[in-house]
Amino acid sequence: MPCYEIDGLRPVVHPSAFVHPDAVLIGDVIVGARCYVAPLASLRGDFGRIILEQGSNLQDNCVMHGFPNLDTIVEEDGHIGHAAVLHGCRIGRNALVGMNAVVMDNAIVGDSAVVAACAFVKADMVVPPRMLAAGIPAKVVRELTVQEMDWKVDGTRCYHELTVRSLATLKPCVPLAEPEANRPKFDLPPGIVPLVDLKRGK
């Protein structure tokens, strides 16, 4: 992975974490146990500290950065969707930040809360635990249902499993010119479905 030291501080990655070779880590970055960091994620610890606590995941094209002396933290089992931007904020334990959402300086997303896709969480905003925040700017909309919270836990578990799979089997390869006959699909246990399908009872 591209990993850079600055001013004598270099990133820390726990051996049980998976950081994709195309992610970038700079300076004061701490990636905890069992974390998953996807391709093209940028963790820029050149001003404030960047922390991923154990079991959290940071998906493709995400950015974590912050002002000097302002840590940017994803707590245990936090789940950060594709292309989200976290800047000087704290994401609570088991919380989810949806795809393309932005969470600004000094904002706090509470434990097991959800920030909807494309939401903009303003600086200093507090999203209480187990609540849904959505919109531009984000507003606290309602309490999450048990079904929604269970769905989030299942989704994060899939990333825990992906960390193990990636450490064990992901490697560079030369692509095939065409699909093999009877090309197999992944032999995985039943996974989660989109939340909208779950709510429809599919």
From TrEMBL:
Gene3D superfamilies: Hexapeptide repeat proteins (2.160.10.10). Pfam families: Hexapep (PF00132). It comes from the Bacteria. InterPro entries: Hexapep (IPR001451), PaaY (IPR011974), Transf_Hexapept/Carb_Anhydrase (IPR050484), Trimer_LpxA-like_sf (IPR011004). This is Phenylacetic acid degradation protein PaaY. It comes from Aromatoleum buckelii. The lineage of its organism: Bacteria, Pseudomonadati, Pseudomonadota, Betaproteobacteria, Rhodocyclales. The gene is paaY.
